């Protein structure tokens, strides 16, 4: 079970969204991490046969996925980032329809829909119109449709976007539950999602992979050191300009800062263990999509 | 497949625009049927006018007295009866009610009187009062007039319009018309023929709203990414959309037309189905009965609607724009109107073969548009019925191919 990406490129007019990338994916949860515009969605759409590559190829167990056509899509479950639905369908109708176009027989589909509705917690609202669902409920319906056909390859594009913390935890648990014997590719700019469930991480920037590997490998290869320090408020502004600051917090002693730098930013700096948050900042030069207590400190 | 089609149809009718379209179609059906049935009127001996089914019953009884072959003797009797009514004090009166009373006595032979008016007027004229000036001796000229006026027109006004072979072909068609013609009360069929174009055109313009979104709706609702990533997404699911579109068009159209036809004929009568349309369209080149003509009008309407709506579906699949797709039938219906004033012979012939003609086959039966296919000369109706089924059959795989290749960026 191997999904191989070979020299894959996708160009839109003057823009190269995906630039000559290669990698091999097998069973496990892969976290595709990158800022908005990194090319994650374009890559995923090519993996779902929604877009044809400008160059390169994608193979599944040695066969070109575009040649495999429906046989490949039979293995696929996909939750797009900007998830669309049929607003006047009930949740149940929506899932039954998707089951029909996924090739499930009506009796099997009925059974599978019932199971998934319970699994994602939508059973009580199965008759509710899709347009009347909350953002989190719609997302859960989206996850349910992706799982209808027991996909061998599950591609989830920003699946936790718009979910509240409880729903995000629930979602992570669900992915962990179903990831056995599957290839799950999960794109996000929310580091904690990947931190908890991804076995491998693909860091993507400007259409190319910056780094790939396990969390430990990636953390070991961080090009900068992580430092923590407490500085007077007036010095904090200067440090913010000069360094990549992962976190900043006001304390009675001054401003507590978490800084990425090859050398200690101040004399009193203490070396810290790097996290994926720091990796994100180090490679992408900006903090992740998660909000934290440092946002309005200065 | 059945389930996919079921959900596609459900998708169409779950939209508010489709529900509104259905409501409008019902209103159109009701209003058009009412207008069709109430276009039949009867004037009683007191000069009072009534309309609708009861008027149709009285008219039917009066006209049944004149049913039969319209031979020289019948023409003579109509001229005499017409003259007799004209000589009554009511007809001579300038009082409108009195004139209506006089007209009430002509209602039974009104259709034959109109045949006489058409026969004795010029080829492209109609003098309603001309029968009033005829004498019973003129009856013998009734049928010969048809050919005489045709040859006069072909040698004069239409001299440069037709080639020699076309001219001979037209004359031959006129000669082939079996005379004397059979006449019967046919208000049901005649009114269906007249008003069916209205219901066909309005149905088309309403139906395009739910149909145009079948393909573009996936992109508009951002559901295309999931749709195309599924097992049947680029195969049977596309076919299901096509089938749903076809079924909605076919089901809606034929339901509308069957109800319209059944109610109208039920209220106005089915008599006159076997009468040739030449009885009421004196100069037609088509040797069709009223029943056959109406069947072709309805079938033509279906083909026209199907073609234009499939074209709208193609545009919807290609451009992902419902708004653009909706404009297609409007354009195809109204654009030829702007070109119809042209004196260019080629353009005129082309206009005669545009799909809007299928929506108004009733007028096509009155046209003298001839086309040459190889060595054969033919009228526009057979060509329309050859071109558009073929075009529809070609459009189906084209829509399928275009949509299944959609890229979702």
Count up the domains of chain A. Answer: 2
Gyration radius from CA atoms of chain A, angstroms: 21 Å
- Low-pLDDT residue intervals, each spanning 5 or more residues of chain A: 287-298
Compressed to H and E, one letter per element, the order of chain A equals: EEEHEEHHEHHHEHEHEEHEHEEEH
Name the CATH superfamily classification of the largest domain in chain A. P-loop containing nucleotide triphosphate hydrolases
User: N-to-C terminal Cα separation of chain B, in Å?
Assistant: 28 Å
Q: How many separate domains make up the residues of chain B?
A: 2
Q: How big a fraction of the residues of chain A is strand?
A: 25-35%
**Largest interface: pair, residues per side:** A-B, 36 and 29 residues
CATH class of the largest domain in chain A: Alpha Beta
The radius of gyration of chain B is 25 Å
Oligomer: heterodimer
> What is the β-strand count of chain B?
6
Per DSSP E runs of 2 or more residues, the count of β-strands of chain A stands at: 14
Tell me, briefly, the overall form of chain A: globular
Class of secondary structure makeup of chain B: mainly alpha
